[in-house]
Write a structure and sequence with these properties.
- It is built from 4 helices and 3 strands.
- By secondary structure, it is mainly alpha-helical.
- The chain has one domain: Helix Hairpins (Orthogonal Bundle).
- Strand 1 and strand 2 form a beta hairpin.
- Helix 2 crosses helix 3 and helix 2 runs antiparallel to helix 4.
- The longest helix is centred in the last third of the chain and has 35 residues.
- The protein is elongated.
- The protein starts with a helix and ends with a helix.
- It holds the Pfam family Ion_trans_2.
């Protein structure tokens, strides 16, 4: 089933709210960018918190920012590829980010279910 099929009205006229979909995408981007910046700031202040292929991420600020945003994306949206791993305090930060990444879709589903229930109650 495609995303288009999920968003089109069903026979009962119910559909997933585009507003909620935009909300969750926005929240994901905020967390992704926030944690990416946190990894860079931790790297600049305390030393490497992310290793790429077993070595600290090398390069200037923008290289580290790009690597941090990539790592943040993989941590928030999946379990990662394994090419980058957190070290030291970065492990705790990545754990928190992964927990948030798992909780957001659940919140989206619960919110959608509550809205469906409210619509059903209003129709009755």
């Amino acid at each position: 089933m495609s995303l288009k099929g999920l968003l089109l009205p069903t026979e009962k006229g119910e559909r997933i709210s585009l507003e909620h979909l935009y909300w969750i995408i926005t929240v994901y981007f905020i967390f992704l960018i926030g944690f990416g910046l946190l990894y860079v700031l931790m790297d600049l202040k305390f030393g490497s918190v992310i290793h790429l292929n077993g070595l600290p991420v090398m390069g200037g600020f923008f290289a580290k920012l790009a690597s941090s945003l990539y790592f943040s994306t993989m941590t928030l949206l999946s379990v990662g590829y394994g090419d980058m791993v957190p070290v030291g305090i970065g492990r705790w930060i990545a754990s928190i980010e992964a927990l948030i990444g798992y909780a957001l879709p659940a919140a989206f589903v619960v919110r959608t279910a509550i809205d469906f229930e409210n619509v059903k109650n209003d129709l009755n």
